Protein 1
Amino acid sequence: MQRRQDWLREYLEEELENPLPFVGAITLDTDPTIAAHYIRETFGIRDGWADEHVTWESALVGLRRSAESAGIVVVINGVVGNNTHQPLNVHEFRGFVLSDKCAPLIFINGTDAKSAQMFTLAHELVHICIGKDGIFDLPDFEPGPDRVELFCNKVAAEVLIPTNELQNHWPAASLLSEPFKALAKIFKVSPVVAARRAFDAKFTSQEAFFAFIKEYQAHELRRSKPAGGDFYRTQEKRIGWRFGLAVTRAAKAGRLLYRDAYCLTGLAGKTFDMYAEGLGVKMP
């Protein structure tokens, strides 16, 4: 990921691209509510944006695309490169961020439950907006004592479920047999994120929160399936749309040797050409 970021930074500088204005735009002293509002505005998370998505999985895709359209490389992969025999361990990390003024990069561990990936992405967006690298773990969604991580967690939660909206919806949701799932449907986030927000707002007990987390994540991991299916979709996530587009365009224009493009993407020959065509770049 560092090698990819280094190449993309150099490429963008040659293209005379301006630094991204949101990198380092907020600080740890920024009020979390104000910081969350800035992030929602920057990445197009408008009021009522959840209504645009049928499911929270769709909302995750939408947020990823918004981040990449803004200039962030977002990679979701559960293995080392394309080696399915080398899965990444979710107990080691959920994701990490490499902040950069021109080519910020977010990596999300694809072996993690999808319910956790939305929060990871939001958390890493906060990291970029304060201009700090970081490795994200958050066992049981419990932040550590580090000031940066505490801030990023608080802002990410506010981005996904604003406090005022949570207060409006909780009274009705709390009367249902599955209140966290009810909130998840409203905000198009995972039930895990909804449960975390209810816990932080002191609407539910610590015991109820952790019992739900344990049960829900065990259920999701049981029904998770290895990535597969459509080749282009898989590679788009593993390589990142923004990065892949830059590499394929540079190779087509003769500004990047094919062997270097193969090395950067982990794809070669006709497989690389097939990937490029999926991005809309017809190779010669």
Note: Strands lie at 73-77, 79-80, 83-87, 95-98, 105-109, 134-136.
Protein 2
Amino acid sequence: MRRFFLSVSLLAMISACGQNASQKDEAALPPVPTEIISLVVAEPSRGQYEISWTMDGAGPVAIEAYTDPSAPEGSAVVIDAEFEGSAVNWSAPDDTQRYYFRITPLGGAAEIAAARVLPLEGGRNFRDLGGYETQTGQSIAWGKLYRSGVMAELTSADYEYLDRLGIKVICDLRSAAERTHEPTNWAAAPVEMLTFPDPISDNASLLGAIFQKPDLSADDVKAAMAGFYRETLFQQDVAYSAMFAALATDQTPLTFHCSAGKDRTGVGAAMVLAALGVPEASIVEDYVLSDKIVDYRKEMNLDAEAAPSGEDPYAFLRTLPPEVVDPLLKSDAAYIQAALDEAKTRHGTVIGFIKAEYDVSDEEIEAIRRNLLQP
């Protein structure tokens, strides 16, 4: 019996020693760094920022604000060196500047983000294409590539804000008539303004023809819009080719725009994002964002009882039932998907289409990625 008790005691001691050793080994292991999973920045009014994030753990973060997204560490405004929480509101010291934010968890890697939509008083759908991740794990640099709608209503305060962005090139995808009706009187730092001859085939006129159809339905308009997007791939070939050439030679920051900022601009954005290696789901996500940013019925004054005085390009739409006009105004995922599928049908992949139809070489694709992507 004594041997039995001795054996039990010995086993208990060995077990306790093993547990103590295991606990010591665990205590000796360095903590796993906390990583930022998502980071969202909004600027609901100029200079007022809402920053929120999620992490794969808990702990303090350092929050820094920069006016240059490529600025080195140590040159920022430190909002909080050890912030406990997952969201913060911040008032910028200078509301004429655009700010980018670096969030760094203790022992983890930093993430950089900015407000996607620019807080412009007279802007329409003016937003940054930065931050989207590619299939290789890189992301588009903030402050290098912008998409927008018409700029005719930009205010002096807007131009003071835009002046700080250093935009070098603006690609205007509109027709000559549109540029005359709503001219861009650029008043920030000088830019190269690229305009293009009207396309030989005007698919906007073809789209307009659908509204002459008797018993027009919403499904008719949706089908016509999908066709419009497929045709835009080819109708805007000269403009898109010029845009790719500018990006390949690092003429950035670059802005491209049409009137609404969702159709011709949306197809152009899809082509650029695809060339950068952004997954198709993210390309569609960027496209449909227009619906959340712009109320096009309000922008076009379509609910007015009477047409405004003077020339009004949207007057005809007021004569139609809202249910058949609404598909024209929406950023339906099916529209941009139609363009992407058309590109793949023609040349196997969207990048294959870009190379063939817009005369973009492999070397230029690589140059565009070097110019716009960051680790």
Note: The first strand starts at residue 36 and ends at 45.
Protein 3
Amino acid sequence: MKVVITGATGFVGKVIVQKLLASGDEVIVLTRNVARAAMTLGSACKYYQWNDTETLPPAEALEGADGVINLMGETIAERWSDEHKKNIYDSRIHGTRKLVEVIEKLNIKPKVFVSTSAIGIYGNRGSEEINESSTLADDFLAKVCKDWENEANKARNFGARVVLIRVGVVLGKRGGALAKMLPPFKMGAGGPLGSGNQYMSWIHIEDLASMYIEALKNNEIKGALNGTAPYPATNSEFTKVLGKVLRRPAFIPVPGFALKIIFGDMSQILLGGQKVLPIKFKEAKFRFRYPTLEMTLKETVF
């Protein structure tokens, strides 16, 4: 397949690119910095510059492509100022809108458009089991995700099969959530966040990358799917398993009020949670390489 990717140099994007190249697919990368992207991803990809998501990407990059994987988006893992919240929203909604607008203009349009979303669309739900048919929330992150999905779904107007992957907490080496969690745990100062009762719906980065490729190549998959592992854990359970794997104590709690002071509105991600189940991927017979938390952490923390 000839596949166009945005966000290819990110934590998840790099793994998806490696898997596509290994399977013989042609990879086209849309990036703000071609030189940096080429240094990161290598010479096997073809690169096109797209500086500003307020403008259309170059049509020649997408002409004749079989599929698109859309991973673009400003990081949410830092304190949210008003300006940063605007960047979180604009980078996702405006960027996806411009991708779809250029698809409309193509002579040969992609057959599939796989776009990222997030489990934040469900809001803080306690211990309720969440599937793809569950009701959606209306807070800031949920609005971002709903508007993001709405823009991606417009690609259906031009014949594309649209898949939306609602991503959970991504666990992998040298990046993602673990990069921020590991330092205090390795020093023996780790522990639950807030009450510790909030659920973490996690996913190993290798499984998530495989989900994107399965969504790209399996014509039976469409609509919104949860990109999470089958066994979500509470924050306390996660902490216990991480401490066990690292052979470090993990009992020093971080009070909720301290997280609110440090992270502001972004603390809602740490203190809230959802017990999200990947029902549609299981129905599609997706094979998880890392279905359990202990298996995942043993592979990722060293």
Note: The longest helix spans residues 82-105.
